[in-house]
Amino acid sequence: MVKAIDAFKEKKQTLGLVPTMGALHKGHLALVKKALKNNDKVVVSIFVNPTQFDNKEDLVKYPRTLEQDVALLRSVSEDAILVYAPTVEDVYAGNTVSETFDFDGLEFEMEGKFRIGHFDGVGTIVKRLFDIIKPDKAYFGEKDFQQLAIIKKLVEKHHIPVTIVPCPIYREPSGLAMSSRNTRLKPAYKEAAPFIYKTLETAKTLFGTKSANKVSQWVEKQFESHSLLKLEYFIIADASTLKTVKRKSNKKAYRAFIAVYADDIRLIDNIALN
Fold first, then answer.
1. Phi, psi for 98 (deg, rounded to 5)
2. What is the pTM of this model?
3. 212-224 and 195-207 helices, crossing angle to 10°
């Protein structure tokens, strides 16, 4: 990989990076297509990163479909995409532990409260990929909005010469945010899951006239009466600091964040509120 990248750099070719954990879907392909428009070559990394899983069972069950992923990428471009699919040994050299990062408190909000050590794992693998691939631009979806904010902070604090490009959430026709985990949903849960985004859309409308607290209470009530979906959290936060909003201000941008269990599968989503 390093030799191939050095050859591109010698030719002054620009390089985009789309980091993934595989089990690729149309949302990933949208990132890849955007990267191809903006760069001469694109590296798609496919690596299920063990250090960002706080739940070992989730790590074991995470779908691994490398051959299918490569075929999908080939359908997008025959010659402009490189797939980097390292082993755990390649990446961690026998020491599969995270670095410890300070993301100025972003890591302690939302997902950070429920998934201890998760963002140290994310920071470790993304920094490692940036070191190996040295991309000009890297593309991340807004579905993992907190992760996107943390990666921007990683780049800023470690002075990494890469431009982070946020990409809109790619949704199924039902509104459900596309995720590799969706393939594991049993039919009844797959049918129920679009309720998550419908609830977010109504929350956005309510936020125009009601306080953040009232909107949160309304969302919690919707899930209390849902037989299949279990709400883990719903939070309205400042889009830049990710701090839970106490009182609305017209000068700030807000986002609603949600995590829901559909059986044993955890689904996340978010929406801009203003």
1. -85, 150
2. 0.94
3. 150
List the chain domain ranges.
Answer: 2-167, 180-272
Residue (of 12, 36, 22) closest to 165 by Cα position: 36
Phi, psi of 260 (to 5 degrees): -135, 140
- CA 183 – CA 10 distance, rounded (Å): 41
> How many CA atoms, within 13 angstroms, populate the side-chain half-sphere of residue 143?
20
* Half-sphere exposure in the Cβ direction for 124 (13 Å, CA): 21
Cβ atoms 15, 5 nearer than 8 A = yes
Q: Which fold has domain 2-167?
A: Rossmann fold (3.40.50)
CATH 3.30.360.10 fits 180-272, yes or no: no
Residue 141 carries which side chain, given as an amino acid letter? G
Rounded Cα distance between 172 and 204, Å, is 20
pLDDT tens by residue, 76-125: 999 999 999 999 999 998 899 999 999 999 999 999 988 888 999 999 99
Is residue 28 among the annotated active site residues?
Answer: yes
List the catalytic residue out of 25, 28, 158, 159. 28
CA 49 to chain centre: 13
Bridge partners of residue 173, in order along the sequence: none
Both structure tokens of 224: 């209390």
Token match 């009601």: residue? 210
Q: What is the largest CA-CA distance in the chain?
A: 60
Instruction: State the pLDDT at residue 227.
Output: 95
